[in-house]
Design brief:
Elements lengths: L1 E8 L7 H22 L1 H8 L2 H11 L7 H13 L4 H4 L2 E6 L1 H4 L1 H11 L5 H17 L5 E9 L5 E9 L4 E8 L6
Antiparallel strand pairs: 1-5, 2-3, 3-4, 4-5
Helix pairs in contact: 1-2, 1-4, 3-4, 7-8
Length: 181
């Protein structure tokens, strides 16, 4: 179920490397704490909340009101948790641009390595992207798709589209809770 959207000014560029390194470390420690204290399902719930996600980005040090918070926070999470996915039971696929188009293959690889049935996860990833890119038709073209999931098949999506005409971005959040086949 879609859990919300965020409207942001569209900015180009990247976070400074010194900041991104710190964001990766903070993302790793905060995520590990949340998962240890509340479980991986709670981390999915939090990521799917657009207000929590924005605040998390500020906490990590990316405190600009910008489209960059989406890509930078997702990137910091994915890179910061590398090597810890199995112990945390928390997996991340996708990313910005070309990486977003490789999400299904990445989900399949992760699932095969961890004896998880990935067919429903791949379908969910594709459908969330299709809804926000084709069905909604709001003028925002998706360029970022990040798929978060745990071994029991629960998932969250954070994806973002841009509208270059009005120089804005729209972030879309999804959570698998409440979805029926």
């Amino acid at each position: 179920m879609k859990t919300g959207t965020a409207h942001l000014p569209l900015h180009y560029g990247k976070a400074p490397s010194w900041l991104f390194q710190r964001m990766k470390e903070l993302a790793k420690e905060i995520t590990a704490f949340i998962i240890d204290a509340y479980g991986p399902q709670e981390m999915l719930r939090r990521i799917s909340d657009p207000f929590w996600f924005q605040a998390f980005g500020c906490l990590l040090g990316f405190d600009w009101h910008s489209s960059g918070v989406t890509t930078t926070v997702c990137g910091a999470l994915k890179e910061g948790l590398k090597g810890l996915e199995i112990s945390l039971g928390f997996f991340i696929a996708g990313g910005k641009g070309r990486a977003s188009r490789k999400t299904p293959a990445e989900i399949e690889t992760i699932c095969n390595q961890n004896s998880i049935d990935g067919s429903q996860l791949i379908y969910a990833s594709k459908m969330a992207a299709k809804v926000d890119s084709a069905a909604v038709q709001d003028g925002y073209q998706l360029y970022h798709h990040c798929f978060f999931f745990i071994a029991n098949g629960t998932w969250a999506v954070v994806q973002q589209g841009m509208n270059e005409e009005n120089r804005s971005a729209r972030r879309y959040h999804w959570l698998s809770e409440g979805i029926k086949d």
